[in-house]
Every structure is written in C-alpha cells, then in structure tokens.
Amino acid sequence: MRIRIKQALNSDEPKKNIQVMGWVRTKRQSKGFCFLEINDGSNLKNLQVIVDEGIPGYENVDEVNTGASVSISGDLVPSPGKGQTWELKASEILLIGVADPETYPLQKKRHSDEFLRSIAHLRPRTNKYGALNRIRSEMSFAVHRYFHDLGFNYIHTPILTGSDCEGAGEMFQVTALDLDSLAANGKKVNFEQDFFGKKAHLTVSGQLSAENMACALGDVYTFGPTFRAENSNTPKHVAEFWMIEPEMAFADLTDNMALAQDLIKKMIIHVRRECPDDMDLFYRFVDKELEARLDNIIDNDFVRLPYTEAISILQKTGQKFEFPVEYGLDLQTEHERFLCEKHFNRPVIIYNYPKGIKPFYMRVNDDNETVAAMDVLVPGVGELVGGSQREERLNVLVDRIVETGLSRDDYWWYIDLRRFGTVPHSGFGLGFERLLMLTTGVTNIRDVIMFPRTPKVLEF
Q1: Most distant CA pair in the chain: distance in Å?
Q2: How far is residue 268's CA from residue 437's CA, in Å, rounded to a whole number?
Q3: Contact 391, 363 (CB under 8 A)
Q4: What percent of the chain has pLDDT over 90?
Q5: Are 252 and 376 part of one and the same domain?
Q6: Sign of the four-CA dihedral 224, 227, 233, 236
Q7: Residue 405 and residue 357 share a domain
Q8: DSSP string for 358-407
Q9: 421, 215 Cβ separation under 8 angstroms
C-alpha cells in the first residue's frame, strides 16, 4: 500500500508492507546498512529509512545520493531515535532517478534566498519553500471555502481585455500579428487586422467584470492571475500576481471594510490551525516577531482612519520620509508602514481619498472632492487591499470617465449597468502574494510566488 510521508509520520499504529516514494534529503552509510531521510513534499519533516544490506535494490545504494528519487517498501515501526515517532524498515529499495552529487545544488547547508531564486525549479524541495507552497495551497483552499460559506458565487473573469480597469496604462499588450514581418516590410501595425479587431491586453483586474456579475447574482468573487506592466524592481512588486476580488451588491464602503478585515483575520487563523508545523518554521527561522504580530492582527479591530487624518498624523510626526507627505498625493510604502507599524501598531484602513488620485469607478462623496475608497495597510507589507464603493450614479460615472481621459465608448457596457436597475455596490482587490508575505514574514514577494515575473526576468 502506497502512502504519503505525512500519513506515515502521523500514523497511530505500526504498518506492514507500505510503500513510500520521494526524494533523498540525506544519506548516512555504514558497513552493512545505511540511513536515508526522504521527503515527498507532503510534510515538513522527513521520514527516516533503515536500509539493510541484502535487501532487493541495495546493490544500487551507492548511487542513492541527496536529490535522488526513490521508491521504498517496508514496515513502519516505532523509532528509538529522538524527535521522531516512526521510521521505515526497508524491505526493498528502487532507485528511480539519480542525482549527480557533484552538481546537485541543494546540499545539506543553508542557501540564500537570492541563490534559490536562481534555481526556482528546485527550491520547492527545501524546507522553507516546501512549507511556503503548502501554506499557499492551504490558503487558496481557505479563500474558496470562506466565500462559499458566506454565500458568494465564484466567477471566472476574462484574462484578455480591451479596457483598462485602473486607467493607469500599465498593461501588457497581446497581439496575434506578426510584428517582425510588419517591421521588416515597413508596414504600420493595424490593430483592426488583429485577432480581436482592436488592441487587446492582459487584465490588471477582474473587477469590472465582477461588477457585472454582482449586478445579477448579488455577492460574487474572483480569484486568479492579473498582470501589470509596471517597471518596478521592489520587494513587493511582480508583473504577474494573484488577486482575490469580491464584489457585493447593495453594499457600501462600511460593508467593504468589514469584509476585508474579516477575510484577512480568517485566512491567518485557518493557516495557523491547518499548517502548524510549516508556520512554526517561519516563527523560528524567518521572523522571530511573526507569531506575536499575527496574534495582534487577529485579536484587535483594524484602525479606520480618513485620508485627511492620516496626512495630518504623518506631517506632525517629525519623522523624515524619502517621499513628501501632502494632501492630494498618494501614500507611499514608507508612509503606510509607519502608520501601521509605529503609530498604531496594527492594521489601518485609510478611507475617503482625494478623487484625483483614484480611478474613475470609485463613488464620489458628497463633498465632490473625495471618493469612497479604502486601502488596508498591514505591518511588514504596507498596502494589502485596495477597494471602494463603486459609482452607481449614471451621470456622475460618465463625467468621471470623461474627466479621467478615457473613452466612454470603451465602457458602454459598464455604463449600461447604471442605466438598467443600478444599485449601490462595493468591492476590493486583495493581493494574494502580499497576504502570504504578511502570514509568513517573508519580506520579498519573489519568494512567495514560485516563478516570479519581474522586469527582464522570464525564467522557468
């Protein structure tokens, strides 16, 4: 019977004639026998295997080195060693794939994150990145269960789009035209001849499509990849990342803030409960203050702070910032982290931003100067969530589209939602990788997504 190593290590009783498969982490060879530690990715801990001379396959044991893949059959028996309950007494060992000990890069030593990024195809085999991927998997599942239990409908929004949700122009263009051929023949690009008959891009958000569905199904969410052609080489930016984007019909900004706070808390609670061993690795080796910080997030309400008050606090603090603090300017990461790490020591929700620094779809407040927008700022990361109550009034929305220099023809369908049974609605986007950074204490976004896409980097 084949079982995963996690099952073996969590067994309640000895087991006869089981089979495990995995990769060798370490090997200690003595005369007549050897000890192997193997891992199949299901668990942080390795399974120790005792391989005695004379069993089938032992003649190949010299080639069973760190990194090799093996299949081992035998009996699960109590282990006399410290720190382990069970070990496998091998009755047969099969070498599946060799690993050259001279060139295999993951030897038993500590490797830097920078080095491991250069071998991203192998780094999930390390303790840290194995744990990180299991946490990512568990949290992905938790996202779906959270919204399902609240009665949200899961929707799939387009990856390809002809409209810019954010209005910032930082979009990857997609074309089926042979641009090299056009250039070689001195021809101009005519997008009317392209696949869609117009310019197409990778989406920066599923929000506009989600609004469509919310105005028919009520509460919906989408969870998938988004793309931003932002030339930023920072620890919190990548070009391809995953977003959780709920949209609620008949909901205002207050509802939106409450949902964002609850989602963040529940995701952290779930992962800590379901992945205790993996989380313990991050508590001990990545960030010694992580456990206390997560306790603080779970146990306290987030601060709710109008943008004007946030600017006032930053201006009065006496702190020297690299970027200026002025009304009408967006907050930078250093401002966001000061507020939630030093001033309040917990997450902060900033709301009611000046409309001039926010996209066209955010609802204009009665003062005609601010919009019902909100950002959730968290320690160690800065902005985690960006959202708003959406503009449901037809005339105001059209004015904002024109005011921000966009074409109302590109958004005719979006405008139609305000013509046919408009309702107040709100939603937000939560960066999944940033949520993982918050939960694990990892400080570089390139280390919470396995194959990061950044400027000039398209490996793996």
Answers
A1: 85
A2: 11
A3: yes
A4: 90
A5: yes
A6: negative
A7: yes
A8: S-TTBPBPTTSSEEEEEEEEETTTEEEEEEEEB---HHHHHHHHHHTT--
A9: yes
Question: What's the rounded Cα separation, in Å, for the pair 272 and 105?
Answer: 31
What is the pLDDT at residue 145? 98
Q: Is the pTM of this model over 0.85?
A: yes
Torsion angles phi and psi, residue 352, rounded to 5:
60, 65
For residues 98 and 214, state if they share a domain: no
* Tokens representing residue 97 in the block: 């794939």
Please state, in angstroms and rounded to a whole number, the distance separating the CA atoms of residues 349 and 340.
9
- Together in a domain, 317 and 234: yes
pLDDT digits (tens, 9 = 90+) for 371-414: 999 999 999 999 999 999 999 999 999 999 999 988 889 899 99
Q: DSSP string spanning 271-313?
A: HHHH-HHHHHHHHHHT-TTHHHHHHHHHHSPPEEEEHHHHHHH
Between the CA atoms of 208, 212, 218 and 223, what dihedral angle is there, to the nearest 10 degrees? -40
Residues 228 and 151 in one domain: yes
> How many domains does the chain contain in total?
2
Worst-scoring range by mean pLDDT, 48-62, 146-160, 172-186, 379-393?
172-186
9-20 pLDDT, tens digit each: 999 999 999 999
Supply the pLDDT for residue 109: 81
Position 118 in a domain:
no
User: Can you list the alpha helix ranges (DSSP code H) found in 300-358?
Assistant: 307-316, 333-337
- Give helix 432-440 / helix 253-274 axis angle, nearest 10°: 50
pLDDT digits (tens, 9 = 90+) for 335-373: 999 999 999 999 999 999 999 999 999 999 999 999 999
Domain co-membership, 154 together with 63: no
The domain in which residue 338 lies consists of: 123-168+204-447
Above 60 in pLDDT, residue 430?
yes
Task: Kindly state whether residues 367 and 415 are assigned to the same domain.
Answer: yes
8 Å CB contact between 38 and 47: yes
